[in-house]
Amino acid sequence: MRYEIRVAGAMSEVMLDEGFPELESFVIASQTVLVGRIVDEAHLYGLLTRFQNLGLRVTELRQLPD
Amino acid sequence: MPADPQDLPVPAGRSGPARFREDPVLTGRLRAARVPATYVRRAGLAERLTQGVRDHPLVLVNGPAGAGKTLLVSDWARSRGAPDQPAWLTVEAEDNAPGAFWTAIRQALDQAGLLAPETAGAPLPDPTARPAARLAAELAARRSPVVVVLDEFERIVDPDTTAELHLLLRHADGKLRLVLVGRNEPLLPLHRYRAADEITEIRAADLAFSAEETAELLERHGLALSADGARVLTERTQGWAAGLRLWALAAADAPDCEQYLKEFEAGHSTIADFLLAEVLATQPAETRQLLLRTSILDRIHPALADALTGRRDAERILDGLARTNTFVSWVNGSWYRQHPLFAEILQVHLRAGDPSLPSELHLTAAHWLHRAGLLDDALRHAVAADAWEQAAEWFVEDLAVEQFFTPAGTGVSAALLARMPAGVRGPSAELVRAARALAADDLEAGTAHLDRLAATTAGLPDNTPLKLGAAFLRLVAARLNGSADAAEEAAETVERLRRRLPADRWNEHPLLTVRLLTDLAAARLWAGNLASARATLLAALARADGAEQRDRSEPLALLALVESLTGPTGRAEARARQAVVEVEQARPGGRPAIAHLVLAQVAVERGDLAAARLSARHAVESGADRCRDPLQAVITAVVRSRLALRHGNPRQALSVLGSAEHPGAAEDPSRWARGLTALAASEALVVAGDTRAAVEVLSDGESGGVDHALATARARLAGGDLKAAVRALPDLAAGAPAITTRALLVRAEVRAADGDEHRAQRLVARALTTARPDRLRGPFLEAGP
User: Which of B312, B313, B347 has its CA nearest to residue B327?
Assistant: First the structure.
C-alpha cells in the first residue's frame, strides 16, 4: 500500500531523515508531502502516532494507486 | 567521573522489596503537575471544568500534544479546596490492561484519601464481584461524589478496560466524576453520553490560546509585543500552547522580538520542530548536550544526567532550566522530567547527530539505574539498547524470577523480559526462558531449558543467584508434575544456596519465600502429608505478613483446602473467603480457583446447591478446568462430581472423575489423590445402586482414613449389610464435624433398619447437635428422609 501524507508546514531535514526515514518527501505550498510504502495497518497507525508525538499536524492522508 | 549512585540518597522503599512497580508517589504520577510561574490562568476553561464535574459524570479534555491539557487541569485541580481535590493518576503504558489499571485507580483514590472511612459503615460489597462493579458499589455508598482525573489517557486503548470504565460510570450512582485528559478520544461510547447530556467536552479549539491569552503569556515571559503582534503570533501558531511557549523562549534571545515575529510569520516551517531547534541553538553547548542526551529518559536525576554527559554540572543546569521553565520541569525529590513533546523531538535530533549514540546512552543509563537499585528502569533502558543478555543477567542476579509467578500480575521487569527474542545467549537468558515457560505452565519446555542450563553451567564458576533461580524453578516444575521428592530436593537446594547470600539480599524478596513454601506445601499435600503441608502453609503466611506487598491468596486458599479435608467447615470457609478478598486486593479481577472450589465444597456441606453452583462457576471462570496444576485438577474433578451427585446425576458424577486420571501436567494422580477420587466415586456408586462397586472402589485407594471408613460403612448400609456397616464405622471422636455427623446418621439408619426407632431418633438428635455449629445441612440431605 502506497500512501501520501500531508503535514502542515515545512518539516526540517533532521525531522524528515531521522523521524520518518522510510518516506520520501517534498515541500509544496507550506505543506510537507510524504510518500511511501506502508507495510500494514500497524505501520499506518504507528506512523500517525509518530506525527502526533512530534507535534506535527496531519492535514491529509490518502492511499495511492500501486 | 560522574557521581556514584551508591552515594545518592535514593529514597526509602526504592531498593526495598516492592519492585513490581516504580514507587508511584515518587514518580509523581498520583498528583497534579506543578504549575510554573509563567502559566496563564484560564478562568473560562477552569469554570467549565468546575461546572462539568458538578453537572456531568464525564469530562473530556482532548487536544494534541503540547496543547496545555495537563497544566490546565493541574492548575484547576490544585486550586480546588481540600474536600473537593480530585484523585489524580497519570496513566503509564503498563496500565493498559485491566489488572494494572484497576490497581492504579485504587492507588490514586487511596492517595487522595477518597476510599476509606466514609464507606466503612456501608455493607461490604461482594468481594467476588468484578473490580469495576466493586469500586462502583464502594463509590455509590459515598455521600458526595469523587472527582478522578486520568491524565495521558490516550495510553488506554484496551477495549475491555474502557468497557469496564463505562460500567463503573453507569453503576457508581452519580458518585463518580471522571475527567479524562488525553490526545485522543477514549473508546467509550461517547455518542450515548452526548445524547443523554452526560458529558462536558473541552477540545483542541477550546484549548487554543486567544490573542489576549497570548499577550499575557508573553508578558509573563518578559516580552513586550504589540497587541497586533500577539494576534499575528496566535494565528501563525493557531494558539498552540507549546508553539507559543517555544516562540517566547526563542524570542527572548532575539535582539528585537517584533522583527523576530516577522521572520517567523513569513516562514513556513513546522512550528515545534523549527522553534525547538532555534531555542536549542541559543543555549550554551553544555545545556544543549544535556537536553539532547537526557531526552531518552522518562525521569532525569542530576547524577544520571552527569553519567550521560560525562560532566558534573547537570544539577546546576537542570535547576536553571526548571526555574525558567525551559523544556524541563521538577517532578519530585531530585527528579526532573522533560516535556514529552520536546523529548520526542530532541530524540530525533539526538539520532541525527550520531545514530549510534542513543543506544550507547541507553546502556549507560541502564548501568547507572541498576547501580541505583532501580531494576525496572534499568531493564527498560537495557532492552532499548538491545542488551538482552545484560538485562537477563541483572534480572537473575536480583532474584527477580519470582516476578513471573506472582498472583499480583507479572512484574514490570518480568513483563519486559517476556519479550526477549530467541537466540539471546548466556545462562541467565536460559533461566529466563525456563521461567517464561513454567509461568505459562509449559512443564516440558521449562524442564528442557533447565536441563540445558544445568549442562552449560556445569564447568563454570559458581553463580549463587543463578543456581538459586534454577532450584526455585525446579520446585515450580516439581509441583506441576506432582513429584514430592523433587520438590523436597529443590527446596533443600534453595535453602542451602540462600545461606551463601547476604541475609538482607534474601530478605528483600519475601515473596520468593512465600511462593517457595506455597509450592512445597502443595507438593506435600499432593503426597498426602496434610499435617506438614499445613505447617508449611502457616509458615508461608507468616512470611507474607512481614512483606510490604502481602501476597497471601494462594497459601490461604491451599490452607482452606487442608481445613476442608480435616477440620471444621466454618474454618475452611473463612480461609477461602479471605483468600478471595485478598486476591481481589492484590490483583483486581484475579480469581483463586482453589478458594472457589473450597467454597463450593462448603456450600455442598451446607446443602446450599445454588451457592455451590455459583462458586463452581467462579472456579471455572478462573481457569480451574484448564489449569495444569495437578492438585487443582483433582479438586476440580471431585467438586464437580459431588455437585453432579447432589443434582441427582450419579453417572455424570462418575464420568467427571475421569479427568482426575491424568491431572494437569502430572502423569498420574498420587495415592492421596486416588483416595479423594475413590471417595467421590464411592458416593456416586451408592446412589447409582452399585453398592458392591462402591465398596470395591475404596479398597483401591489409600485406606485407613476416617472418611474412607465412613464411606465403606455407607456403602455397606446401602447394600443392606448392617453388621458390616457397623464394623466399618470409624471412631466417632476422631473426625471433623462433617464426618461425625455422617457417622451418627449411618448409625441411626442401622438402628432404624433394626426397628429401634427410639435409639435412631436419639442418634439423629445427636447428629443435629454436631452439625449445628457449622450449619451442615448437606449430610442430612444426602441421607434422605
Answer: B347
Please report the sign of the dihedral spanned by the C-alpha atoms of residue B63, residue B67, residue B70, residue B74.
negative
**B219 neighbors B79 (Cβ within 8 angstroms):** no
Residues in B touching A6 (Cβ below 8 Å): none
What is the tens place of the pLDDT at every residue in B266-304? 888 999 888 898 899 989 999 999 999 999 998 999 999
Low-confidence ranges of chain B (pLDDT < 70): 1-27, 116-129, 407-410, 548-550, 584-591, 624-626, 700-704, 732-735, 783-785
CA distance B294 to B296: 5
Grid coordinates of B76: 484547576
Task: Give the count of domains, chain A.
Answer: 1
Query: Which residue segment(s) compose the domain that A12 sits in?
Result: 2-64
Q: What is the CATH number of the domain that holds A37?
A: 3.30.70
Q: CB–CB of B270 and A30 under 8 A?
A: no
Give B441's contacts (C-beta < 8 A, 6+ positions apart): B480, B627, B628, B629, B665
C-alpha cell at position B648: 441427582
Instruction: Write out the three cell numbers for B301.
Output: 536525576
Helix B706-718 to helix B671-688 angle (10° resolution) is 20
* Other beta carbons less than 10 A from residue B623's beta carbon: 15
Q: Where are the domains of chain B?
A: 43-207, 211-282, 387-518, 704-785
| Contact between residue B308 and residue B294 where contact means Cβ atoms under 8 Å apart | yes
A-B interface: how many C-beta pairs under 8 angstroms? 67
Are the Cβ atoms of B270 and A15 closer than 8 angstroms? yes
A49 contacts chain B (CB < 8 A): no
For residue B297, what is its C-alpha cell?
A: 529518559
- pLDDT value for B123: 45
C-alpha count within 13 angstroms, C-beta hemisphere, residue B15: 15
Cell triple for B689: 445402586
- At the top level of CATH, which class does the domain B43-207 belong to? alpha beta
Q: Name the grid cell of A20.
A: 520518518
